Amino acid sequence: MDEGLERFRRLQGLTYQAAEEVAAGLEPGVTERQAARRMRRRLADRGVDDWFHVPFAWFGDRTAFRGIALPHQFLPTNRRLEEGMPYILDAAPIADGYTADIGYAGCLGGNERWERLVSDLAVYRRLIVERVRERRTFADIYAEVDRQIVRHGHENRHRKYPGRVIGHQVGRVSGRLPRNVIVGAFGVRTAQTVGRELIKERLQGRSTLWNGSRRSQHPPTPGLWAVEPHLASGDVGAKFEELLVVTEDDAYWLDDDLPHVRRWAAQASGDLT
Predict the structure, then answer these.
(1) What is the pLDDT of residues 30-50, one digit of tens each?
(2) pLDDT in tens, 99-140
(3) What is the CATH number of the domain that holds 39?
(4) How many Å apart are CA 255 and CA 273, to the nearest integer?
(5) Of 26, 95, 99, 130, which has the maximum CB count within 10 A?
(6) What is the DSSP string of 113-131?
(7) Cα(239)–Cα(13) distance, integer angstroms
């Protein structure tokens, strides 16, 4: 692995580690805002110097995006965690210009719906990378994911994200604007870099956003993609988000040593506790 990809991989691993540590400290009564602040503090202490977007935390039915329709409603609230509640921690830090974007799903105590969702998510991880390797268009892959969601009896919740995206392109963030200046939930250097790349890709008939629209009717664009299939069953939601490497003739997940992948491996071997 070249040094650039290794830097992305290390930051992604560090971010997932921070999410696991925050998750381990969650207990009834903790609010979304408190959980998000803990994530932000841990990552800042470990060298994060800017944000693609600041940490989010969603508890209970907010993991299924119930009652979320406008961008500001994604921001953490004073919703308190309760026993049996699902939660999602989502963070996109930047360190020295390198970007990660992760989504960590958990549950405080037992919840059969959550268990089923997390188990089913393994199918989407395999499906997505296989179809990218086949050079199917992004829009076609999005549609196939939708069909699989219907077969599983779940709901597509990534369509609630701005742009209805299941993924978006990431790279090194640069620019003359100051680091760690946040507008809304996004870093100003992120907005500058994303805007520049959006114009560049549009001129080439491609999009930096991966959804089911006409603009995604093109083969997978080489580069790094943050991919985030997000499912719901009733008021319970779950997702993963991680980096997918796309080349001219191949695709692979940047790292297989991640919490959800380890969970599926343990489940397959009967070692899940």
Answers:
(1) 999 999 999 999 999 999 999
(2) 999 999 999 998 999 999 999 999 999 999 999 999 999 999
(3) 3.90.230.10
(4) 23
(5) 99
(6) HHHHHHHHHHHHHHHHHHH
(7) 17
CA 8 – CA 169 distance, rounded (Å): 13
pTM, 2 dp? 0.91
Distances (CA, A) of 261 to 27, 101, 141, 236: 24, 16, 21, 20
Alpha helices, DSSP H only, in the chain?
3-24, 32-45, 112-133, 138-152, 188-203, 259-269
Map tokens 């114009």 to a residue: 199
Which tokens go with 231? 């499912």
Report the alpha-carbon distance of residue 238 to residue 254 in Å, rounded: 21
Cβ neighbourhood burial of 126 (10 Å; 0-12, 13-18, 19+): exposed
For residue 219, the 8-state DSSP code is P
CA atoms within 13 A on the CB side of 260: 29
Which two tokens mark 264? 């599926």
What's the total number of domains in the chain? 1
Q: Which of 188, 192, 230, 194 is nearest to 209 (CA)?
A: 194
For position 258, what pLDDT does the model report?
A: 98
Report in angstroms the alpha-carbon separations of 107 from 77, 134, 178, 244, 271: 18, 35, 37, 26, 19
Read off the tokens for 75: 């921001």
Sign of CA dihedral 52, 98, 239, 194: positive
